[in-house]
Each structure stands twice: as C-alpha cells, then as structure tokens.
Known about the structure:
Blueprint: H1 4-18, E1 28-30, E2 39-41, H2 43-51, H3 55-64, E3 72-78, E4 82-87, H4 89-101, E5 115-119, H5 134-149, E6 153-157, H6 165-177, H7 200-216, H8 218-233, H9 236-259, H10 277-286, E7 290-293, E8 296-299, E9 313-316, H11 324-338, E10 343-349, H12 353-365, E11 374-380, E12 383-384, H13 401-419, H14 424-444, E13 452-453, H15 456-459, H16 467-486, H17 502-512, H18 514-524, H19 527-547, H20 556-580
Helix pairs in contact: 1-3, 2-3, 4-17, 6-7, 6-8, 7-8, 8-9, 11-12, 13-14, 16-19, 16-20, 17-19, 18-19, 19-20
Amino acid sequence: MKKLLDLISEEMGMAFEKAGYDAALGRVSLSNRPDLCEYQCNGAMAGAKRYKKAPLAIAEETAAALRESRVFSQVEVAAPGFLNLKVKESFLREYLADMRKSEKFGLEMPEKPRKYVLDYGGANIAKPLHVGHMRSAVIGESIKRILRYCGHEVIGDVHMGDWGQPMGLVVTELQERHPDLIYFDETYTGEYPKEAPFTATELEELYPTASKKSKEDQAYKEKAMENTYKIQSGVRGHRALWQHILRVSVADLKKNYERLNVEFDLWKGESDVHDLIPAMVEEMKRGGYAHESEGALVVDVKEESDTKEMPPCMILKSDGAALYNTTDLATIMDRMEKIDPDGIIYLTDKRQELYFEQVFRCARKTKLVKPETELIWMGFGTMNGRDGKPFKTRDGGVKRLESLIEETNAEMYRKITENREMPKEEAEETARIIGLAALKYGDLSNQASKDYIFDMEKFTSFEGDTGPYILYTIVRIKSILGKYREQGGSFTDAALRPAESAAEKDLAMQLAAFTAAVSGACEELAPHKICAYIYDLANAFNRFYHETRILTEEKEEKKAGWVALLLLTGDVLETCIDMLGFSAPERM
C-alpha cells in the first residue's frame, strides 16, 4: 500500500497535469494551519516563474480540475496561491479498510531486504549492569525490532568485554583469597570442577575490590597483568577460571537483560576474535597500510578533506599488546567472513564518535569491508538525574540497573494498588509490565543522541507523554471491546464507516499515518518517531472516546463501525509498542 500522503500527492499531481502543468508540482504536505485545512499544496507558487503566470491563476485552474475528485472534499485557493485541502471521509474509510485487511497494515516491504549486524548492549563480564547500560540495550532492541518489522534481517550481538585486564584482576583477587584452588596449581593435569568457585553475587564484588587494590598497590597491579597474560596465552587453570567467570556472568547478564525484554542473537565477546588478530595485523603490514610510529603499529586514517586533526588508528601498542581498536577491527573482519552483512550498526555513548570514525576509516582503508558495506555509528546521550548530571545513587555511586527496575516496579505497584483492588500476584505482574513501559518509553521518547532527565514521577504517570498513558489507552480499548462482546456484538460484522465527527476523522487520519511513521523511524533508526506517533494516536483516540457514547449507541451499524475503528486502533498501538520492546496488560 502506498502512504496516504503519496496517494493525495498523486491526485494533486494529476490535477496539475490536467490543468496543463507539471505533475511534480502536486506535492502535498500536512497543513501548518490545521484550523484552515488538513493538507496544503504550494506547487502553484513553485510553478509561477517557470510558466510565467500568476500563482493564483495556476492554483485556481488546478482547483477546477479537482471538482470531481474522489479524494478531496474541499479544495480552496488562498492568496498568493496556496491550495488548502481536506480529504473525503469516504476516501479515508477506504484507505483504513485496505490497511485493516493488509499484512502489516499495508506497510511496503523493501524490494531488496538488507542484512544488518547490530552491535549493542556493551556488557562487561564480571561487572553488574548499571543504569549507563540501559540506553544501549533499550534503544538497540527497539531499532532491531523496527528494522525487522520493516522487512530487514537483523542479527543482534551484545559484544561483551570479556578479554582484557578486568579478567586478570578478578583472577588475582580470587588467588589472594583462595590461593589453594587447584586452578593455580600449574602441575595439575586432571579435570577442573564444573561448578565455579564463586557465585554471581561474589563475582560482582570481586572486580571492584581488585580494581581499587590495583590503583593503590603496584605489585598487585603487576600480578593482575601477569594473570591477564596467562588467561590470554592459554594457561589451563587460568583459562578454566576465565570460563567459569564467563558462564556465571553471562547467566546473570541474560537474567537482567530478560527483565528489560532484550534478546541478543549472538553472545560474542572480544575473546572470540583474539586468535584472528595476528593474521589480520600481518595482512595490514603486507598491504602497506600499517607502519611503526614511536614503537607502536598504526594505520594513518587522515583524509585530505579533514578540517580538524584526525589521529592515526593504533593497531598494536609499543609492547605488542592489542587495543580495543584491534579487537573491533578483527570483529568487523570476522563478521564480514561469517555473516557478510550489508551493514554493521554500532550503538554506544556519543563520546565515542572520534573512536568509531577512526575504526571505520581503518576498516575501509585496509579493505576489511566491501566498498558498499554500510558502517553506521549511533551515539546516544546520557541518562541524568534531576541535577542534570549522570544518574547516581544517593551516596554518589553508579546505580545498578536491577535496582532501577525494582524501584520503578515498586512505584507502579504503589500507584496501581492505591487506585483499585487487585490480587497481589496480578498487581505485581501488572506493575512489572507497566514499569517496563515507563522505563522504555521514558528513554525512547527522547531523541537517542540527546541527554535526558530521569524523572520517576513523570515517567510513571498515567497522564501525559508516558508509557503508562499509552498502556492505559490500550487497556481502555480492550475493556470497551470486551464489553461489546459481552453485549453479543461480533467483531466479524464490524465494518468501518466514513467518519461523522471531527474527533472520529482525526482518529482515522492518525491511523492512516502509520506506514509513514514506521518507514520514517526505520530509515532514520529513530524509535522516538514511533513514540511521537503513538502519543498522537492515543490522544486522538481518547478525544474520540470522550466525545462518543460507543456502547450505548442504538444504531447497531454505527456502533459496529466504531468497534472496527477501535479494533484497528488497538492493533496499531500494540504493534507499535512491540517495536519499542514492551507490551500491555489486560487490565490496569
């Protein structure tokens, strides 16, 4: 199905052509004066110079060609040549009927679907997720779902930090506390225990303790570096401990990502490409791309068009150690060989812009990717407290994501149980569903690149531009449809009718904007556009609801028409919140 605006523009284009002008002048846009009209066309003014004719005359001739239009109920000419338009309710009804019977409400699928690897999450092994991890997970999950809904293939990869010095630090602290563990006996040749010598809770405490010690004790730091080397060089006991760390940490990470309704297809880490680095580096040297600079191996990525300094991309440090750059480049090489995507999308903190510019330039220069492969970096802003600074706990520490989810759920539980009686178990589950919507919508309704203030009171409100408001609207629709069914009404008999009121027509027009909103969000990788769309749709529905006595309407045909409108509205809203990564409860 074509977008509504495209169909309207086609009709206007045919009128320009019928009047003797170029059809391209018929491009229509939403009106910036909704008090006067729904749409407008400025083509007459654009054609005035070309046809050496007054724009008013061109507009009047075009309006005359629309007298028998099946699309427009009103075509008015306004000085100096505007065409002010309103669409016919019958045309809108036909469009919605086509939406209702079409797959994905008529959203056009791409002729050539693209395959993307989406790198998001950024979790680090042995460290609990904190609030700083939320944006990457939430935005990335929504982008993945939007792209998939629009017909593309997307492979989500958490790309964990699992191979650097933090691993050596954890092993060092374990060694300090339990030096007799068989993992540290390098003469041991037997099988190692299947169970880890620590729990997930203990693991979370090991790393910060070790990190603090390494900053204060040089000998401890050197021991951690030695243990890191032993892990990476394959010493049996150290490698076995590392695998325990990985298993315990990943199990805990999966549990926390599940609470956010975030799923990854791949749980790859830096360690997965460690063995690929030497061959990649040799190839860069052979190709003449990499050279030594002050003992380090670098690739120059500066271009003649650069107006500011662009440092070279360092591949190996002077001691021969790999860096994040090295790992990311090896990961790109690995993805191209195993997946061969049309594009790789990275989602990270916006402060990493220069880093990714260097890595992408290096990947292209060294031919790790095809010329046509898209390399896309999306930088997101920070989630801040009310003081405008990055979100912290009361004592100044970084708040754990798990704690934030629990606090949000507790606030939603309080609000739910204050307003109505509900069994405890149902109330807790409802609070969890709405709490997730509050967190996700509160984040996603902001443009990803911008910082935002986390406001618990605002985000958990049932009024305004919030997740709970959207869910309340969906539950209201479900409630009306449930009562209609109890009255003996049949959904199969519900047929859409032309709108009879301004509120009904506004709701119909918001529904008709679905495909444009979704395709726009897909093209721009912009979940906030879906949020803006469903907020407008929810507002339009609630205005219609307050002005219309749906269930007490005596004319069954009219009531059934409204029910058909509600069915479509509910389906569109639930489809959109699924793209955002949350769902609605049955009641609130």
